[in-house]
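[agent] plan:
  1. take the single chain provided in the ticket
  2. run structure prediction with default settings
  3. attach structure tokens to the ticket
  4. add a short note for the reviewer (M.T.)
[agent] executing step 1
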Amino acid sequence: MPSTTSPHFGETVGRVANRIKDAVPRDLNGGRDYQLARNNGPNSIHGGEKGNKKSMRFKYLSEDGEEGYPGSKNAKLTERSATSTSATPQPSKAQKPSSSDCYLPVDTNGIPLDKIDKFPRNVTAPFILHTTEPQLDDEAVVESDPSRIPLDTRAQPLKLLGRFDNPTSRLHLEVHSTEPEFQFYTGEYIDVPQVEGAPPRGQCAGYCVKPGRYINAANKPAWRFMCLLKRGEVYGCKNVYKAWQE
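[agent] step 2 finished; step 3 output follows
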């Protein structure tokens, strides 16, 4: 939840960034079910109520049972930034909102149905994000064949998920990832109060491009392997955010 004394409302999420149906990963470790924190209606989201707090100092040990999840997990986060000290060619001004025209339809609680489908709207052509519309919270599928998704995707080629251009500020953002899907959320429910030095932020004040694995994969036998980490295995991904101003 956003702080009442800080304009920051980001989060370092916990073990599973997106939703798990009924907050229960079922039939794990010899048939056990695990009750997680319900913090999104009947579901669990962002790894639980606290996630991994507001910061991660590059290493984090998540103990067995934290937020209800089984097994201990060691996480390592590496962040790199790159800047240019001389003039370099910039990407084209042409916007590419999405590299995918497929998505996972969801039920009323945000849990995917059992099929991958074509988007009901054209999301590969440029469109404008207005102050109140469009209101999107969709899971775009970049890799539609689950058998091609490894537990560690870092060796996969980076793919452009979306490009965003602001003609007024002349700011630009590209999001690239090795992950098989991403959630695109246009901020319909943003409600951050005004604090000293920062104005309030309301509906559609920001947007989210969240790369990851298929939502609720832990409860789908055909998808489970892409997110189920066993002893000695490594889960990995690579996300690249490119931002510049003309």
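[agent] step 4 note for reviewer: The chain has two domains: 1-80, 85-245.
[agent] ticket updated
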